[in-house]
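To: structure desk
From: M.T.
Subject: fold request, one chain
Message: Could you run this one when you get a chance? Sequence is below, nothing fancy, just the single chain.
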Amino acid sequence: MSKNPFITPFESLPDTLPIFPLPGAIVMPGAELPLNIFEPRYLNMINDAMASHRMIGMIQPQPDAQDEGLCITGCAGRITQYRETADGRIELVLTGVCRFDLGDELATTRGYRLVVPDWDRFAQDYVDDDERAQHRHTELIEALTRFFDVKNYEADMPMLQRLPTVRLVDSLTIGLPFSEAEKQMMLETVDGEARVNSFIALIDGELDIPESVTRH
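Reply: Done. Structure tokens follow.
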């Protein structure tokens, strides 16, 4: 992740974190997720976060969970854009900071859920690991070109080509219509180069292209 001067250092990440459970919605370190907040409990959450460390945790519910169960891993993001609307909503952009494993849940009186995050497994989110993945950049762009052509998606390919390899994968993991399970798999993959490999396999799988054909 680039050295953004506004991002909380790893050793200063908070001991507690408000969470926003939302199926199919993840954020990745260094990538951006736009959100539209309107439920009272989550308006409370955003207001409380803005008054403290400006961070919330995005995490997916467990599939088919009957007891508000959550996936084991989420990602904390910092509120980097914020706008209040006349109809009582908050529009914001969340920039991913660091992933976390789920710890204890704490009682609150503000409606939203609060947890103790375990950051230890994801210290690498503060390391720029793009150099190790750079050798797959051309293959990634070729795979994306095929994918967008077949799916009839519009994309600014020159802009995408300029993005660092891992940043490109993390940003598109958020935006492309992968399943909840596929997004969770990418989120839980610690190593950036491994995420690039998995991402290429995912989009080739969407096109029924055997992985052995695309590997160099």
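Reply (cont.): The chain has two domains: 10-123, 130-214. Let me know if you need anything else for the meeting.
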